[in-house]
Amino acid sequence: MKSNILYSQSWEDPLILNKALNICEKDSILSISSSGDNTLYLLSKNPKEIIAIDNNPYQNYLLELKSVSIKELEYNKFLEFIGLIKSNKRHLIYNQFSFNLTKEAKDYWDKNINTIKKGIIHCGKLERYLMIFRKYILPISQSNNKINRFLSCKSIKEQKEFYRNQWDTFLWKATFYVFFSKIFLKKGREKSFFKYNKINSLSFHYLKKTKIGFTEIPINNNYFLYYILKGNYNLRNIPDYLKEENFIKIKNNINKLKIKTINIKEYLLESKDNKHSKFNLSDIFEIMSEDEYEKTLKEIIRVSEDKGIICYWNNLVRRNSPLYLKDILQKNQEKSRKLFNEDRVFFYNDFIIESINKV
Known about the structure:
By secondary structure, this protein is α/β, with parallel strands linked by helices. The protein has helices at 14-21, 37-43, 57-72, 75-82, 90-97, 103-111, 113-118, 125-141, 144-151, 156-167, 170-179, 182-185, 202-215, 223-230, 244-253, 264-270, 290-303, 333-342; strands at 28-32, 49-54, 257-261, 276-280, 304-314, 329-331, 350-356. It is 49% helix and 12% strand. The longest helix is centred in the middle third of the chain and has 17 residues, at 125-141. Helix 17 (290-303) links the parallel strand 4 (276-280) and strand 5.
């Protein structure tokens, strides 16, 4: 399958997203679809509605497939279907509910039934890139036994000692520098995400971030790092939308989800004033110029209710709202920093929370 799907899993922490947005039953949420994981998790918080948008139709086909399978399948069958549990019956499970997909989504997945068979959580461009790292690069410096021993660490102190004494070798650094250089990273992410990057050595930058992930974030509940190293989740440590108690809530709220394939700027221009109260914006500003970013912020302000909340991540490109909007867009610096320090995804540079004060 061609890598039309850029991300088949969310690489943004849903727990800090939920703490930032503080969803209630009156909220109308605008959420970037991406892999769909965090959009689905927000559904478990019982909002009034969620409008999921993405200008990549394949990301929306993925979200639609996940949402329809949640609606139609029982919990364990759903885990089997998406790829969390080993199975040779995923195509048969798909046939049980595929008629409920839109024509466009069904046509796409019918043509990519081998992707269904392998498990849809593994099919993204980034996930395939990480698979190459895990299969061919990581074994040069780390044995499977060593990986398992690291994942068995019980404390931050133990993680730090293990990283310093056993993991952080010359081979680890050398292979990391090569594989996560800019030329190779473009095989894992779209080139547009590097357009406004000003960081000279991406491999050095990400090695520092990775050290933080290994030594400062508890491994026992960091399913992101576990997936990177093992290629799937530990059933005791899974994404939050996959937990059974949240799965049931999502199933009950699935009809509150509307999926639209559209650019965010076009969507905002078509939207009425005061339409949404909460905004999950992922890291969409990475690919925008400063001017585009500021124009988009102004449209978000117009479309937001008073006291609306927006949040987004900065990865390689720092985007912070301009001073001339400071009376309307008020940053919650203390909460942003606190949640950023709790983030289980270690490669971001910042997590932004802003409230919109229109009165």
